[in-house]
Design brief:
nine-stranded mixed sheet, Calcium-transporting ATPase, cytoplasmic transduction domain A, alpha+beta, translocase, disordered N terminus, eight-stranded mixed sheet, Rossmann fold, Calcium-transporting ATPase, transmembrane domain, 12% strand, 40 helices, 1188 residues
C-alpha cells in the first residue's frame, strides 16, 4: 500500500466508486464537493440536495443515535467505496539510495580516486624494461611477484571504502526504520470515540469509515471530515486549514462542517463522518503536494501549481509551511519551530499574516530561530576545529613527502627526469597523496555524527520501556541539561483517581461520606440530578476488571469522583440519565479555563427551565445567593455567610489537600424565556446544594522522584488550576516545598500583578525577581503557564540559560509545551492537541518517568563524551605517527588500509560500544552541565593527552629501535612495492591493542578508578571488544599484502598484548594526577555566550547558520559532512525567498518557517507539511537527522 502513489490511489478509488456508487444514496464525489463548502453555503446545499443531516445519515445507511451496525462486510464495503482513513506515506529511501548518499562523503571520494589512480598505474608497465635509471629513491630491489601485487593496495583501499559506506548506509537505514516504527506507533496510539451498534467504542483513527457517528469533545484533533449532528457549545480552531485564529462556533443550522486536522477548543457533540483519508480536506491538500514522492513533484510541478491555485483557493486560501501545528493562541514569534527530527509528525501551519507580499518578508525576518540542541552546537564546533587541524596536517604531510622525494632524487642524486620514468615518479606521488589522504581520514572524526545518532536512537528505543515516547530526537539529549521542570498537578504528581472524602450538605460539614439517611430527601434528589445530568455523558463508573480492584473511572476524573459520591450515597445515576438523554439537554455551558464551571439547562415537565451548575467552589459560591438548609429549603446566603463558609469549610478542606467543588442550581420561568447567550445574567443567583472535597492522592513514587530531581540540581515547580491551599498542601506532600524554606506560592492573579508594569505589559526584570523562589503557581490560566515558562527561558538572571521542561495535558497547554525546551504531554489524559505540541509523550502520565528521561538525556551526553575521549586519543596518535613517520622515513608506518581499519574500529564500532552504555542512578547525583560547559572537560583532556603520550612513546620506540629489540629486519626505507615487514606489522598490531584496552579506559570520563564497573551490563561493549580482537588476529595472521601485514610469532603477539595492557595501568597513573594542577589544559567544544547570537543579528541573517557553521563556510572545508546540511538550509531559504512572489494558493505565507528539512525524507505516513516545495523544484537533499 505504501508504495502506491497518490494518483494510483485516487484512480483506484474512483474506479471502485463508479462500480458501487448505487449502493449508498450519495457518491464519494458528491460528499467531497459538499465538504469543500463552508458555513451558510453548505447549509443551503444540504437543504437543496439532501433535505437535512438526518437524510444524509439515512442515505449513508447509518443512525444518528445507534451509529453503524459495525459488521465486518459493511465496514469493508464502505472502505472500498469511500476509501480508508489513511494517507499513503512517502516511500522510504531504498538501501541503495542510502549507499549512494554515503558515497557522497568527500573524504571517501578522494580516497576512491587515489585508489583508482594507484590501481591504473600498477597495471601500466612503461616500455623499456630497464628502469634502473629511474630513482628507486630508497634502494632495495623488487621481486617480480611483488611488482605483480602492486594492485592489491588500491583494491584494498576500495574494499575498505565499500565497508565504511555499507556500515554508514546500514545505520541510516535502521535509523529510518526506527523512525517509521515510532511514527506508526504514535499513529496507532491515536484512537477516536465512535458509536457502533449503540455502543460507544474507541477505535484507531485508521479504522474510521464514512457513515460512522463520531463523538467529538474538547481537545480532540478531528481525524476525518464530517457533518455536525448534535452537540453543545462546540467551538473549533480551524487555523490549521484557514489561517483564521478565531474559534469557529459550530451549529446544525449555521455551520455544520467539521474538517479533519482541526482542533476542538470547547464543547462536545456528534458528527457523521462524510470523507476520510485522501478525500478529506487535509487529504486533498496532501494529494496536491504529492505525498507520494518527490519525483512526481518535479514532473507535476506545473500541474500542481495550477491545481494549487484553484483548489486551495476554494479551501479558504490554504497555505502551509514546513513546521508544526501552531496553536491558535500561540504567538507567531513565540513558536519555536521545532527541528523535526523525522520522528515528528509533520504538521500543517496556520497563516499568521493577513495579507501576503511585503508584510511577510518583514515578519519572516523576526522569527525566533530554533536553537540547535546544545550538544549539536558543541559537536559542530568541535568537528570543525578538528577538521581544520586534520586538513593542515595532511597538506603538510604531502608537501614534505613530495619535496623530500624531488630534492633527494633530482638535486642530491642529480638524476635527470627521463620520459620513460614518468609513470614511476607518478606512482610515488600517488603513494604520497594516498598517505596524505589517509592522515586526513584518520584526523576527521566521521564517527561523531554516527555516535550521536546511535546514542540517541538507542536511548529512544530504551526510553519506550521507561514510558517515554520521544517524538523529537534532540529532546532526549536536551532533557539531560534541564534545570527546571514546571509540572501539572492533577494526574502527573497525583494518581488522577478522584474520590469525594468530605462534604458540606444541609449546614453540616461531614469529615467522611455522610450516611444517606442523614440527608434530606429533597436535597438528595437535587444532588443526584445535578451530578448525573450536569456532567459529560461519556463519563461513567464501570465495574472493576479484576475481583477486588477499584471500580474503573472513565472520562473526566473530577466528574467520576462526583458520580462515585452518588454511588457512595447508595443512589444511582444511570436511571436519571436514561430519563433525560443527552439529546434532550436544552443548553450546555461546557467547562473551559475562563469559566472554571460547567452548567446544563434542562426543560422541566411544566415547561419551566432548571439549570444545574458545578465548579471551583470559590467561583461558584460567589454566584450563589441562597443555600439549602438541613430540611432542604433554600435560605438566604449573604456575602458574610460566604466568607464564614470559606473560613470554616473550604480552607480546612483545601489545607488537607482536597479540591473543593460546589454544586448548585437555579430555576427559570418558562416565559419570558431567558437570553441564554447572556452568560453573566444566567450564571448568577444560584442556590448552593453542597460543597464537596475531592481527594486526588499523590502518586506513591512521586516524592522520591522529586527528591532525585532536587539532588540532580533540577528545580520542580508546580503549576495548577487548583486553589492555592490545596496546591500548597500537595506541594508539601510531594516535597516540592519544605516547611521553613524561603519560597513563594502565588495565585495567577497575584503573579500577574507582580510581573506587569502600570501599562499592563510584562517586564522581564519583574519576572526575574519572582521565578527563582517561585515553587507553586495556583489558579493559573494557560497564559500564566506560558508567561512563566517564557520568563524563565528568557531570563539572564543566572549565568547559565535555564533549560525548562514542561508537562501538560490540556489543549490550552499547547503554547507552553511549545515554548519549553522539552514539552511532555500525557499519553493517557492528554488531548491530541497537547500531544501534537509536545516533544515527549509520557505513556503512563507519571512524573517519575520524567526523571528517567533526565537520566537518559544525561547518559546520551556522557556517551558522546566517552566516545570523544576515545576517538580523539586515537586521532592524535594516528595523525602524529603518520605525519612524523612520513617526514622522517618517507613512508607512513601505518598504511592506508590499516588506517582505514583503525578508523572503522574507532569510529563505527567504538561509537556502538560506548554509545550504548546503560544509564546508572549516579548520573542523577551531579548538577546539569548547562550550555557553557565544554564538551571536553579538563579531566578528559588530561586523559586524552596522557594516553597519547604513552602510545606515541611506545610506537616511536618500536619504530626506531624495534628491529633491534625483536631481532628482525627493519621495515624503514622499504622500496615502492616491497613485501610487508614484521617490523611494521608489530607497530600496527601494538597500536590496535592499545586502542582496544584504551576503549575500556574510555568508559569512565569523570576520573573514576574502576573502569570495569558494570562492564557486563553492556553486552554490546563486550561483544565489540572481543570481536575486534578476533578480526585483528585474522588481519595480522592472514591479511598479507592487502593489509601490509606479515604473520607474527606467539612471543611477538604476547609483547603486543602486554604493551596494550599497559594502557590500563597507565590509566590508573593518569587518574592519580590531580586535574586542578593542570591549569594549562584547554577545554574544547564549548558554546560561549557570544555564540548564542542576539536576536537582532539573527534577524539580519535569515539563513540559519550559527557561528560554527559560518566558519565552515569561510573555510570552505569541503569534505566536512555538515556541508550538505548547509546546502539544505540555503535551499530552504532560497525557496522561501522565491516563494514570496508566488501568488495563488501560497499567497499568504506564514511568518513562521522552521528548520524541518531534516524531515524531508522521513515524512510521516499521514501528515506531510505543505512547504513552498510547490514554488521551487528543488527537492531537499536529506540532511540525515542528527548530523551537523
Amino acid at each position: 500500500m505504501g508504495d502506491m502513489t497518490n494518483s494510483d490511489f485516487y484512480s483506484k478509488n474512483q474506479r471502485n466508486e463508479s462500480s458501487h456508487g448505487g449502493e449508498f444514496g450519495c457518491t464519494m464525489e458528491e460528499l467531497r464537493s459538499l465538504m469543500e463548502l463552508r458555513g451558510t453555503e453548505a447549509v443551503v446545499k444540504i437543504k437543496e440536495t439532501y433535505g437535512d443531516t438526518d437524510a444524509i445519515c439515512r442515505r449513508l445507511k447509518t443512525s444518528p443515535v445507534e451509529g453503524l451496525p459495525g459488521t465486518a462486510p459493511d465496514l469493508e464495503k464502505r472502505k472500498q467505496i469511500f476509501g480508508q482513513n489513511f494517507i499513503p506515506p512517502k516511500k522510504p529511501k531504498t538501501f541503495l539510495q542510502l549507499v549512494w548518499e554515503a558515497l557522497q562523503d568527500v573524504t571517501l571520494i578522494i580516497l576512491e580516486i587515489a585508489a583508482i589512480i594507484s590501481l591504473g598505474l600498477s597495471f601500466y608497465h612503461p616500455p623499456g624494461e630497464s628502469n634502473e635509471g629511474c630513482a628507486t629513491a630508497q634502494g632495495g630491489a623488487e621481486d617480480e611477484g611483488e611488482a605483480e601485487a602492486g594492485w592489491i593496495e588500491g583494491a584494498a583501499i576500495l574494499l575498505s571504502v565499500i565497508c565504511v559506506v555499507l556500515v554508514t548506509a546500514f545505520n541510516d537505514w535502521s535509523k529510518e526504520k526506527q523512525f517509521r516504527g515510532l511514527q506508526s506507533r504514535i499513529e496507532q496510539e491515536q484512537k477516536f470515540t465512535v458509536v457502533r451498534a449503540g455502543q460507544v467504542v474507541q477505535i484507531p483513527v485508521a479504522e474510521i469509515v464514512v457513515g460512522d457517528i463520531a463523538q467529538v469533545k474538547y481537545g480532540d484533533l478531528l481525524p476525518a471530515d464530517g457533518l455536525f449532528i448534535q452537540g453543545n457549545d462546540l467551538k473549533i480552531d480551524e487555523s490549521s486549514l484557514t489561517g483564521e485564529s478565531d474559534q469557529v462556533r459550530k451549529s446544525v443550522d449555521k455551520d455544520p462542517m467539521l474538517l479533519s486536522g482541526t482542533h476542538v477548543m470547547e464543547g462536545s457533540g456528534r458528527m457523521v463522518v462524510t470523507a476520510v483519508g485522501v478525500n478529506s480536506q487535509t487529504g486533498i491538500i496532501f494529494t496536491l503536494l504529492g505525498a507520494g514522492g518527490e519525483e512526481e513533484e518535479k514532473k507535476d510541478k506545473k500541474a500542481a501549481d495550477g491545481a494549487a491555485g484553484s483548489n486551495a483557493a476554494d479551501s479558504a486560501n490554504t497555505s502551509l509551511v514546513n513546521g508544526k501545528m501552531q496553536d491558535g493562541n500561540a504567538d507567531a514569534s513565540q513558536s519555536k519551530a521545532k527541528q523535526q527530527d523525522g520522528a515528528a509528525a509533520m504538521e500543517m501551519q496556520p497563516l499568521k499574516s493577513a495579507e501576503g507580499g511585503d508584510a511577510d518578508d518583514k515578519k519572516k525576518a523576526n522569527m525566533h530561530k530554533k536553537e540547535k540542541s546544545v550538544l549539536q552546537g558543541k559537536l559542530t564546533k568541535l568537528a570543525v576545529q578538528i577538521g581544520k587541524a586534520g586538513l593542515v596536517m595532511s597538506a603538510i604531510t604531502v608537501i614534505i613527502l613530495v619535496l623530500y622525494f624531488t630534492v633527494d632524487t633530482f638535486v642530491v642524486n642529480k638524476k635527470p627526469w627521463l620520459p620513460e620514468c614518468t609513470p614511476v615518479y607518478v606512482q610515488y606521488f600517488v603513494k604520497f597523496f594516498i598517505i596524505g589522504v589517509t592522515v586526513l581520514v584518520v584526523a576527521v572524526p566521521e564517527g561523531l555524527p554516527l555516535a550521536v545518532t546511535i546514542s540517541l536512537a538507542y536511548s529512544v528505543k530504551k526510553m519506550m520501556k521507561d514510558n517515554n515516547l520521544v517524538r523529537h530526537l534532540d529532546a532526549c539529549e536536551t532533557m539531560g541539561n534541564a534545570t527546571a521542570i514546571c509540572s501539572d498537578k492533577t494526574g502527573t504528581l497525583t494518581t488522577n483517581r478522584m474520590t469525594v472524602v468530605q462534604a458540606y450538605v444541609g449546614d453540616i460539614h461531614y469529615k467522611e461520606i455522610p450516611d444517606p439517611s442523614s440527608i434530606n430527601a429533597k436535597t438528595m434528589e437535587l444532588l443526584v440530578h445535578a451530578i448525573a445530568i450536569n456532567s459529560a455523558y461519556t463519563t461513567k463508573i464501570l465495574p472493576p476488571e479484576k475481583e477486588g480492584a477499584l471500580p474503573r473511572q472513565v472520562g473526566n476524573k473530577t466528574e467520576c469522583g462526583l458520580l462515585g459520591f452518588v454511588l457512595d450515597l447508595k443512589q444511582d445515576y444511570e436511571p436519571v440519565r436514561a430519563q433525560m438523554p443527552e439529546e434532550k439537554l436544552y443548553k450546555v455551558y461546557t467547562f473551559n479555563s475562563v469559566r472554571k464551571s460547567m452548567s446544563t439547562v434542562i426543560k422541566l415537565p411544566d415547561e419551566s427551565f432548571r439549570m444545574y451548575s458545578k465548579g471551583a467552589s470559590e467561583i461558584v459560591l460567589k454566584k450563589c445567593c441562597k443555600i439549602l438548609n438541613g430540611v432542604g429549603e433554600p435560605r438566604v446566603f449573604r456575602p458574610r455567610d460566604r466568607d464564614e463558609m470559606v473560613k470554616k469549610v473550604i480552607e480546612p478542606m483545601a489545607c488537607d489537600g482536597l479540591r473543593t467543588i460546589c454544586v448548585a442550581y437555579r430555576d427559570f420561568p418558562s416565559s419570558p424565556e431567558p437570553d441564554w447567550d447572556n452568560e453573566n445574567d444566567i450564571l448568577n443567583e444560584l442556590t448552593c446544594i453542597c460543597v464537596v472535597g475531592i481527594e486526588d492522592p499523590v502518586r506513591p513514587e512521586v516524592p522520591e522522584a522529586i527528591r532525585k530531581c532536587q539532588r540532580a540540581g533540577i528545580t520542580v515547580r508546580m503549576v495548577t488550576g487548583d486553589n492555592i491551599n490545596t496546591a500548597r498542601a500537595i506541594a508539601i506532600k510531594c516535597g516540592i516545598i519544605h516547611p521553613g524554606e524561603d519560597f513563594l506560592c502565588l495565585e495567577g492573579k497575584e503573579f500577574n500583578r507582580r510581573i506587569r508594569n502600570e501599562k499592563g505589559e510584562i517586564e522581564q526584570e519583574r519576572i526575574d525577581k519572582i521565578w527563582p523562589k517561585l515553587r507553586v503557581l495556583a489558579r493559573s490560566s494557560p497564559t500564566d503557564k506560558h508567561t512563566l515558562v517564557k520568563g524563565i527561558i528568557d531570563s539572564t538572571h543566572t549565568e547559565q540559560r535555564q533549560v525548562v521542561a514542561v508537562t501538560g495535558d490540556g489543549t490550552n497547554d499547547g503554547p507552553a509545551l511549545k515554548k519549553a525546551d522539552v514539552g511532555f504531554a500525557m499519553g493517557i489524559a492528554g488531548t491530541d492537541v497537547a500531544k501534537e505540541a509536545s516533544d515527549i509523550i509520557l505513556t503512563d502520565d507519571n512524573f517519575s518517568s520524567i526523571v528517567k528521561a533526565v537520566m537518559w538525556g544525561r547518559n546520551v551526553y556522557d556517551s558522546i563524551s566517552k566516545f570523544l575521549q576515545f576517538q580523539l586519543t586515537v586521532n592524535v596518535v594516528a595523525v602524529i605517527v603518520a605525519f612524523t613517520g612520513a617526514c622522517i622515513t618517507q613512508d607512513s608506518p601505518l598504511k592506508a588500509v590499516q588506517m582505514l581499519w583503525v578508523n572503522l574500529i574507532m569510529d563505527t564500532f567504538a561509537s556502538l560500544a560506548l554509545a550504548t552504555e546503560p544509564p546508572t542512578e549516579t548520573l542523577l547525583l551531579r548538577k546539569p552541565y548547562g550550555r557553557n560547559k565544554p564538551l571536553i572537560s579538563r579531566t578528559m583532556m588530561k586523559n586524552i593527552l596522557g594516553h597519547a603520550v604513552y602510545q606515541l612513546t611506545l610506537i616511536f620506540t618500536l619504530l626506531f629501535v624495534g628491529e633491534k629489540m625483536f631481532q628482525i629486519d627493519s621495515g624503514r626505507n622499504a622500496p615502492l612495492h616491497s613485501p610487508p615487514s614484521e617490523h611494521y606489522t608489530i607497530i600496527f598490531n601494538t597500536f590496535v591493542m592499545m586502542q582496544l584496552f584504551n576503549e575500556i579506559n574510555a568508559r569512565k570520563i569523570h576520573g573514576e578508578r574502576n573502569v570495569f564497573d558494570g562492564i557486563f551490563r553492556n553486552p554490546i561493549f563486550c561483544t565489540i571488544v572481543l570481536g575486534t580482537f578476533a578480526i585483528q588476529i585474522v588481519i595480522v595472521q592472514f591479511g598479507g599484502k592487502p593489509f601490509s601485514c606479515s604473520p607474527l610469532q606467539l612471543d611477538q603477539w604476547m609483547w603486543c598484548i602486554f604493551i596494550g595492557l599497559g594502557e590500563l595501568v597507565w590509566g590508573q597513573v593518569i587518574a592519580t594526577i590531580p586535574t586542578s594542577r593542570l591549569k594549562f589544559l584547554k577545554e574544547a567544544g564549548r558554546l560561549t555566550q557570544k555564540e548564542e547570537i542576539p536576536e537582532e543579528e539573527l534577524n539580519e541573517d535569515v539563513e540559519e547558520i550559527d557561528h560554527a557553521e559560518r566558519e565552515l563556510r569561510r573555510g570552505q572545508i569541503l569534505w566536512f559532512r555538515g556541508l550538505n546540511r548547509i546546502q539544505t538550509q540555503i535551499e530552504v531559504v532560497n525557496t522561501f525567498k522565491s516563494g514570496a512572489s508566488f501568488q495563488g494558493a501560497l499567497r499568504r505565507q506564514s511568518s513562521v518557517t522552521s528548520q524541518s528539512q531534516d524531515v524531508a525524507n522521513l515524512s510521516s505516513p499521514s501528515r506531510v507539511s505543505l512547504s513552498n516545495a510547490l514554488s521551487s523544484p528543488t527537492s531537499l537533499p536529506p540532511a540525515a537527522a542528527g548530523q551537523g
